[in-house]
Known about the structure:
heterodimer; A: alpha+beta; four-stranded antiparallel β-sheet; about 30% helix; globular; B: two-stranded parallel sheet; 2 strands
Amino acid sequence: MPELSRRRALTAAAVLATSAGVPAVTALTASAAGSDHHALPSFDEVYKGRRIQGGPSSGGGHHHHVAGYAVFVDGVELHVMRNADGSWISVVSHYDPVPTPRAAARAAVDELQGAELLPFPAN
Amino acid sequence: MTVRKNQALLTADEKRRFVAALLELKRNGRYDAFVTTHNAFIVGDTDNGERVGHRSPSFLPWHRRFLLEFERAVQEVDASVALPYWDWSTDRSIRSSLWAPDFLGGTGRSRDGQVMDGPFAASAGNWPINVRVDGRTFLRRSLGAAVRELPTRAEVESVLAMPVYDMAPWNSGSDGFRNHLEGWRGVNLHNRVHVWVGGQMATGVSPNDPVFWLHHAYIDKLWADWQRRHPGSGYVPAAGTPNVVDLGDTMRPWNDVRPADLLDHTAHYTFHAA
């Protein structure tokens, strides 16, 4: 799918050129004192060719229910949720808990098979 | 009276009518409204906040009402159609007739998970994935890839044997029948089936795959089976529980129905005695 690949490439270029997504995560980390997620480490890595980032948030992004932890794939927020036992899920892997938000981000990249994530709520 | 039947026992004509009704609901836009509603609840329901559709006692009555709404929509297209159920503890193979081209179509191809046969394949042109969380507009599945085995009958029996409907803290950390059936704890029934199917069924927009309705119709039947085994056990909590739908509280998004109104399925449908 050439069009999809081109859009993916443009998204990746935008992330690299403008660091879109990075300010959001670092700013949210700085303001996260008091959040019950503040003990969770932030992360920022390239996994299977895609940039995944995560960090505590204080209600940024779409979080209409709780302040918590925000995860991004190539700068687009991935909706994640923590379960009562400390495990994590995301909107693209909602019935399959994994141990950490980074594992949820990696599972999302696996699931997406290169497709772009749509901003939430996009529909 | 609506009679819900095991999908394995449907006649060719019943399959054809069910498929045609779904395609019509997709065409006229009503189908996608159900996908939107489900995703809104699945991202809004949290273990420490308000929770209605999932990870809470109302998981079962919420889905019972959700399926009733969908079944009514189907019957407005074809009054002869009832929702079939998929007993995945029996029909547990990708070679099941459920996945044949005359019904739901099979698993996705390895390259991108795209379903290539059946009435819901993107190539047939009748099943665009409009309510989605990523750029892909085609139905996807990877049957048995992310988890190898569907639940066994013995695992189902072990959950049906649990005498208490639900327990504090009334979320994904609870002990009791509801959370073991939902699958956040223990042998994992409902959640595992979503993962086994893969594709959109593993996501918040899982009703994009028509098998969603057959899966939940069987979960709903297991609730009815549990009630018959434990006539002295009722829905809990009864009252006064923050963030949780008590027996007499109304449920969003309908706001006109309580768990108490949905405990007896026979007011709405019965199950075909095979």
